[in-house]
Specification:
Layout: E1 5-9, H1 15-26, H2 44-53, E2 58-63, E3 66-76, E4 79-87, H3 96-110, E5 115-121, H4 125-133, E6 137-143, E7 151-158
Parallel strand pairs: 4-5
Antiparallel strand pairs: 1-2, 2-3, 3-4, 5-7, 6-7
Length: 159
Amino acid sequence: MTSPLFIREALPEDAAAVWAVQQAAFLPLAPRLPSRPTALGEDEACWRQRLECAPRRTVVVHVGDELVAAGRVDGAAPQGELKRIAVHPAWQSRGVGRRLVEALEAHARDLGFVRLRAGTRRRLPDNRAFYERLGYRVVAIEPYPPGIDDHTVWMEKDL
């Protein structure tokens, strides 16, 4: 990395950049899945509304002036859920995702969470391995919605 990472809470004016990173991160997954990732159905307006209505839930990572990753924590204490963990493909496998999740975990602790849950698709074993490296353990595997040949792998970590 040529510039240091800067991590902060997202602001409503970040909506376009967060949406763009999410699209860039999730689009390459679509050919590997039997159904389109639901993240690809969200738009910039959805993100703007989320950032206006749920302050302090989304974290972004910048390298220099470029927003390269974003993710959020949903739920109510004591257990939250990591959602929409997205790292721009140009920045994947460079430690950005790890730093993003670590920042979200610290943020979640500040919000009163004691456990976080993350869900990934069975057909995305690299995602499962990523969370396992960060200390998450598989707690359940559930069928994906009816009619879709996939499963959700649920993982948890005590904070």
